[in-house]
Model the fold of this input.
Amino acid sequence: MINTVPPAAIFIIGALLIPLLRGRLKSIYLLLLPIVGFINLINIPEGTHWVIKFLDYDLVFGKVDRLSLLFGYIYHLISFIAILYALHVKDDIQHVAGFVYAGSSLGVVFAGDLFSLYLFWEIMTFSAVVLVWSNRTKASLAAGFRYLLVHVAGGLCLLAGIVLYVINTGSIEFGYIGLKDLATYLIFIGFGVNCAWPCLHPWLPDAYPESTITGAVFMWTFTTKTAVYVLARSFPGTEALIWIGAIMTAFPIFYAVIENNLRRVLSYSLINQVGFMVCGIGIGTALSINGTVSHVFCHILYKGLLVMSMGAVMYRTGKINCTDLGGLYKSMPLTCIFCIVGAASISGFPLFSGFISKSMVMEATALGGMNIIWFLLLFASAGVFHHAGIKIPYFAFFSHDSGIRTKEAPLNMLLAMGIAAFLCVFIGVFPGPLYSLLPYPVDFEPYTPFHVVSMSQLLFFSALAFSLLILSGIYPAEMRAINLDADWWYRKAGIAFYRFCNTPLNSFRLGMQNLLSSVVDSFTKLSEGIHDPVIHRRPMGLGIFLSLGLISLLVLIYMLSLYGRF
Amino acid sequence: MNGEIEAKKEKEYLFDKPKNVKRLLNFFYVSLLVLLLIEFFIHKHTFSPWEEWPGFYAVFGFVVCVALIFVAKYILRPIVKRKEDYYD
Done:
């Protein structure tokens, strides 16, 4: 038995030492950090640890149970993969931000009280934005600021909710909350911003594609999945989540189909995947929660893999738009294979990881008799194959030959992708080990003949639709364009509203102010020089007379109004 | 001229040959057929009546994907498409 520390501490304190190291030592240190963290994690027994008295409250830095542990495992695993992928990067700020971001996400996952949860929640926001700004372009700077504003607003909403909740209940313990009153609704919405709910989502496709190539792996992992964790902890079985999740699975697909930037396509497909998780939380049965949590585990790996493969393409070619890419399988065959593994996993092909997790949520909706939701999720399953499963590999690596000839991705990137790809297949073929870690006992068999055949039919005939539409030229051509999303409200409408307030309303106010002050001026002029005997020209009585007259008028109006009332 | 010479020099890749593309597509069409036929030989463990219909998943997958493309292309894109410098 070794002495353990809060999982967040290793990452956050460890991150601060990174700038002190150089060369090979730094690389070893970066890779060791998640490994040490993982060894620490597996030695923490279930239960409540590291309770610190603060004022009259208990801050809990270690609420360890099967739910938080599974998130802990996958966060350590992806941190290792992400840092291996980023090993060639010389920019210390990115490494530090990445580990602080991962560490604060671990802090949220193991937080047993609302105060420390909020603290880590905010650290997440500020460390994530550094990964956007580290790109050091004008676009990333602007997107980072928008990201920050949205998340600070969401954080304030959460804080307001927490304060009200603590006043109402007298406890800061973080556990089941459920929708009851204003406080819980505010917390719910605060979580929802990070979870990219419909209409609260535009920060995601706005900021994520602007993040650095290597920081993207962290970005695509932590914020949304940590929001899924807190929702699973505090709002399981909340019916609203079923619909929110179902809409999340469906609407981004349409955007993804017409989007040109492949990293933005991945952003939309992230919302789609998180939708399955949110839906599972809303259903709230043991099967659906298991489905959500296993989907988180698989999703982090295959989405990370897809993001890494697109990052490798961007690293080698400097391009990420469908219109600029194509034919890259010729120069980057390994990256291409890894991308296809990720694509097959996200689509849920048999023998790949998405198959064994998404189907649990699907079955939970079927068992609950939620037919509309079931159809929406089935549509989303076909749609995700369409845009993430086919579109991304097809337009990047095949399609028309862009003529780009480049080198295969660097070794550390290939290794990181290789590990993720191996795990995607391993989990798909042997789901047992993952199932054994889930919060509830698993009574689910993914590999029934009917399930395999039905999912294959769905996916193969979606592929048929894709190929027929491509061959017939109906498939929407790639275009250099952007597509408006809900961020239009704060990027255009907000500015227009500001201008409306500034120009007509403000000039109206100024005009009124000038008018009034000139009226007041003319009154004061009447009594000008009253106290100056030398320039005392106007009879003093006039000013007094006018004032008296005004007061009498007011008194008269007052008396009349009193009279009218009786 | 230079371009032509370079193009000749470059190695021919897997899908540069139309024959290979054709092979892949044929393999794909055959697997579609197999998937449709195999359904009649397996035990169906279903939750809802429509899952009993033969080829339900195949038809559903095909139809919704075509619908998805049409909605995205002819309804969503005309509404939301803007020039790349729209926000600048």
